[in-house]
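Exercise 7. Given the components listed, write out the predicted structure of the assembled complex. Treat all entries as one system.
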Amino acid sequence: MENSLKKHRVGWFYIMIPVLAIALFYFYPMLDALLLSFRSGMGMNLEFVGLLNWKRLLSDPNFITALSNTLTYLVIQVPVMLVLAMLMSVLLNKESLKFRGLFRTAIFLPAVTSLVAYSVVFKYMFSPDGIINRFLMDLSLTDAPIFFLSDPFWSKVVIILAITWRWTGYNMIFYLSSLQNIDKSVYEAARVDGANAIQQFFKITMPMLKPIILFTTITSTIGTLQLFDEILNITDGGPGNATLSISKYIYDLSFKYTPDFGYAATVSYVIVIIVIILSAIQFKLAGEKE
Amino acid sequence: MKRLKSIAAYVFLVIAALISIYPFFWMVVSMTNRSVDVTGGRQLPGTYLMENLNNLFGQVDMVTALGNSTLVAVISTLLTMLLTSLAGYGFHVYRSRRKDIVFNVLLLSMMIPFAAIMIPLYRLFGRISQVAPWIGIDTLAAAFLPTLTTAFFIFFFRQNTGMFPEELIEASRLDGLSETGIFFRIYIPTMKTTYAAAAIIAFMNSWNNFLWPLIVLQSPAKKTVPLLISNLGSSYAPDYGMIMSAITIATLPTVFVFFLMQKHFVAGMTGSVKG
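Answer.
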């Protein structure tokens, strides 16, 4: 009895530091951000303003732009990337495919790069005298260079292409490792029953991968909602505010303009609210509990 | 028809692989060329590698940045390994109803977007600066403290501890080993592959971290490699050859580790969601 009490204490001792650290660096800041959202002022001098920050959100054109840009990235980029990743993983899972390892390694490689490093590379590739313009002109697809990064439409396209390049292989690896866990005999049985490849995919593969699809959808959603490194390093939010994301706007409010931590915290809570709503919807759609 | 399908699959995969690799190729080739040649679209290796490296290490403080990044990555990886594996072990081996509740609460922190807490964190470190300036704003310690013990790694170790044979713990106790002794002398050596996988991910996260260091590190002497590259990338008259060599140097360690330990790498990324 005494022994088990001692063991019990050892257990709490082992988990103590991380528990305290996560409380201090994650949960306390969440609470502080909520309290901050009811205060306003410059720098560290803040006073209580009630719901003023929350009202300001609705009439702040920069916030509306940042929100709609972020949702645009989310709605277009995440589905495109996950479908591509799924397609690649299904192709790479075929044992008859030659050079499987080579393809897998090549497609996964972008996932090991630093976000800053690859962003700067993309910025240069898409500059007016960059390699992409040269390529397009060599193929006579365009006569004059396209100013990708100073055009409101193309700059968004570049951001979406960049994120897709960086994260498709990453998600593909998750699908591939789950596919490899599916028992081959299930497919054998389906084939005997006369199911074709497409039926097999929707009736066997998709249901089996449901948990991992849910996982990648949620992590990609949270990731895209926090988009920052690419925006700062490829376009700096421009031209104008054409590529501004919510995270970049929070950063600008806090560290670029005259700091208003109260309002910045309010904007940041919008991300929290969106994450909660979208995750709840995704869980519901997937019909899973965990 | 079947033949056609298979050709289509290869074409698709070849294009995907080429698009994935091309930026790496361009980055390495540009590292050996002059700025004019890079904008001129040169796709072949040149002879300006040494000049670019000389510029990089002579004109900007790449040495300091590399030193800072290495120091932060090594220390934070070691501490993360020790603290989160202890916790993961603790949650699994000394399992109790109350610990399970604490664990589930910790998992919630994985849903917290960093953007939502960066301002309170900055204020928190402002206050820490007043009592303990050596871990406050503009110190390397502040750059890694908030992400030292994440729920992700605790979850990862707790999950993997399930593979650690319970009988080994019982046997060690009968042999008279203390609880701490079991962890350090039996558990750690047995779980080498789990540690390797986690270490790779922890190192990469730290090496590539940008937003928080950008906020908390302010003086030039404290800059890490991503901060330096971001600075170089935003210059009005960029020296492409030099910047590409900085980017290649920043990318090398993670690419190198990936090729060296591909299995552990993938296990680290996917291992925590299985089961």
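Discussion: Chain B has a mean pLDDT of 89. The CA atoms of residues 228 and 234 of chain B lie 10 Å apart.
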